[in-house]
Amino acid sequence: MSLPVVAIVGRPNVGKSTLFNRILGVRNAIVDDQPGVTRDRHSAVADWSGRRFTLVDTGGLVPESVEALERQVNAQIRAAIEEADLCLFVVDGRAGITATDRDVATVLRESGRATLLVVNKADNADLARRLVWEFYELGLGEPQAVSALSGLGSGDLLETVVAELPERTAAPVDPDEITIAVIGKPNVGKSSFLNRLLGEERFIVSPEAGTTRDAIDTTLAYEGLRLRLVDTAGIRRHAAIEVGLEYYTYLRAVRSLERAQIAIVMLDASQPLSRQDLRILNLVEERGRGIVVCVNKWDLIEKNDRTAAGYEAAFRAQAATLAYAPLVTISAKTGQRVRRALDVAIEVWEEWRRKVPTPALNRALHQATARVQPPQSKGRRTGRVVRILYGHQVETGPPLILFYTNDPKAVPEHYRRYLEHALRDAFGFAGVPLRIQFRQASPQTRQRVDPASQGAT
């Protein structure tokens, strides 16, 4: 089941990103923040009063230049109407209603999409009461006054948000079913890839309808396994959203990944790796999904015996944090290696749910710390050696490993990456984001496991 999507929309400089950060930071909002790449973060899963939803910030996804401002904002709204369950239309209470605000309000009213009008920059209660009256003119119901900067009114806004979210019933989860989302920017060949897969005689295909704005899922019986393909290929074209297509694609990917275990991210071999490609790749890692990089249109490339290696090296240089992700070159047009992409996705699924026995994990840990010792802790008059005593895996899908140490805060990021590489060398985890956390070991455990800690303060 995909989570409801709440999209923050509005013209530039009204405080959309500040509101996004405020909602995720208010005291009772529990944020499902998967460790991973944090740059270009535009969505997060939050829980308020027991209701989980995906919050999407349009700031940074839609260009905010002065030129063609109305067209850009209109594109943003069209995309949100297509994919979001609820729109938070943010306006600047101090600036008052602008012509762009009126145009956006008209589009939202005519769409029938559930919308909350959020009057931002109401920095105190008296100002809030004075500012909201003007905005009743927009015809979107009672304005909600907030100060995204200070947090005033954010709790009341969240209560209204969860009251407006649609009720959804979770479908039964089949533990043996592999759910794969095929995502990527427009025109990379997602439809051709899926059509080529579904045209193979060895597949048994049955289409199943998803939710109202979810794409059609397809279940396959393949090599004794049951696969569910979450099809994001059919992006509905609309002239008004062409300029906002990057945001639209991102929103589709967010929704699809909520229901998937593995993502096949499609790239176009004939085009350089773009910012949008990297955003989608980073989103998969943030969400903790297994990942297969599928480079389509390989038939269009002039090749020699070094072409594939050269392309992969260039990709790894630009997407350095995804060194663990397998890369498959395909041609959906000719069928070249299309089934190989599916086979690799199944291999990644096996890694995604891999559970490493604790004795084997600790042998790998001790070998790694013997090769490269953790650095001394800093910020003390007399530094002490950081000791990572033991660890165990507490979750799968994706894997989460806890290491217990005498000083968790002193373990630097570069050493965490070193341990990640050591674990991948020992156990694989190909295509899977590996979560590693450090916890404080109890004094009793330290004395039992680490003789050097005897008498330590």
- The CATH class of the largest domain: Alpha Beta
- Quote the beta fraction: 15-25%
Number of domains: 3
Q: Average pLDDT value?
A: 81
SSE class: alpha/beta
CATH superfamily of the largest domain: P-loop containing nucleotide triphosphate hydrolases
What CATH architecture of the largest domain do you see? 3-Layer(aba) Sandwich
The global form is: globular
Computed over alpha carbons, the radius of gyration is: 25 Å
What is the first-to-last residue Cα distance? 50 Å
Q: In what order do the strands lie side by side in the largest sheet?
A: 2-3-4-1-5-6-7
Element pattern in H and E:
EHEEEHEHEHEHEHEEEHEHEHEHHEEHEH
For the sheet with most strands, the description reads: 7 strands, mixed
**CATH-defined fold name of the largest domain:** Rossmann fold
The number of distinct β-strands equals: 17
* Separate helix tally: 13
In which range does the helix fraction lie? Answer: 25-40%
What report would you give on this structure?
This protein has 457 residues and is of the alpha/beta class. The chain folds into 3 domains: 5-164, P-loop containing nucleotide triphosphate hydrolases (Rossmann fold); 177-352, Rossmann fold (3-Layer(aba) Sandwich), CATH 3.40.50; 358-453, K homology (KH) domain (GMP Synthetase, Chain A, domain 3, 2-Layer Sandwich), CATH 3.30.300. The chain has helices spanning 16-25, 69-83, 99-111, 125-135, 154-164, 190-198, 245-258, 275-286, 307-318, 338-352, 358-371, 413-427, 443-449; strands at residues 5-9, 30-32, 43-48, 51-57, 86-92, 115-120, 144-145, 177-183, 204-208, 217-222, 225-231, 262-268, 290-296, 327-329, 388-395, 400-405, 435-440. The protein has a 7-stranded mixed beta sheet, sandwiched between helices. Helix 2 (69-83) packs parallel to helix 7, helix 7 packs parallel to helix 8 (275-286) and helix 11 packs across helix 12. The termini are far apart. The model is unreliable at 27-41, 60-65, 201-214, 233-241 and 453-457 (pLDDT under 50).
